[in-house]
Amino acid sequence: MKEELKELISGLRANLSYLRDLGVRDLWIEKQEQTVPEIKSSEEAKVFKPSISLSSQEKQAERNERLANIIEKLRPSKLNIGNLDSSEKKPVLLFDTITPAENQDNLEKIRADIGDCHRCPLYKHRTQIVHSKGNPNAKLMFIGEAPGADEDIRGEPFVGRAGQLLTKIIEAIELKREEVFIGNINRCRPPGNRQPTPEEAKVCREFIIREIFVIRPVCIVTLGSTACQYLLNTKVSITKIRGQFQDFQGIKVMPTFHPAYLLRDPSKKRDVWEDMKKVRDYLKSFQ
Ligand code: URA
Question: pTM to 2 decimals?
Fold first, then answer.
């Protein structure tokens, strides 16, 4: 049974990876209602056990059939592809047609496209644009809200007090800051460190999303409520989804608290540690 399960899982993995290469980013498989009959007597129990032992050929045929059923469920025509736009409740087809091989985008091109950006009013107050920074082959990506005063001056994301705490969080899961990729939804500092408006976020978010698709990390950690809501296009509060893996175009997303919040309320560090252990374990499962 264990071997069968292993084989099924490995087949499933291969097919998922194939679908991902085809450009499928999200899979929703309709849950089939299954009523499991309650087994009342030992007589009934026999019904749910094979009464004859199957030959290995028959077992193989049975396995193949089960695998074929799973593959059938995963056929693109049976899937919703893309992220759910919470307001419209229908798939938003962002990148479903771009396979990794077809993606001609790169980090330099994204920078060039951003240029001396005047797309939203935040440019008026900035010292400089704060671009994302880190390993272009990172397995793990962190996304914050927008630069603060220190970042605005130094031109690097997460370099102030919150950033120093972020470095410690990264090191707590045995990674180095240089190994991950760090960015923000908005690249210009909002005056007085206010939250970026939905319009400002909408304009700038495009660039971090393009970076996600160039880097293709295994996992993204969103820091704080704003980053999570603007990336996932949801209004769900951070306290509701914190610590639970979400999905962004086929990439696991872990929403956790912002390090600036941890500086104000250190008792929340424990929660973030729990979230980061899940991220560490998920990354390990990919090694
Ligand atoms: N807070 C953020 O969300 N991003 C930064 O880069 C710094 C502080």
Answer: 0.69
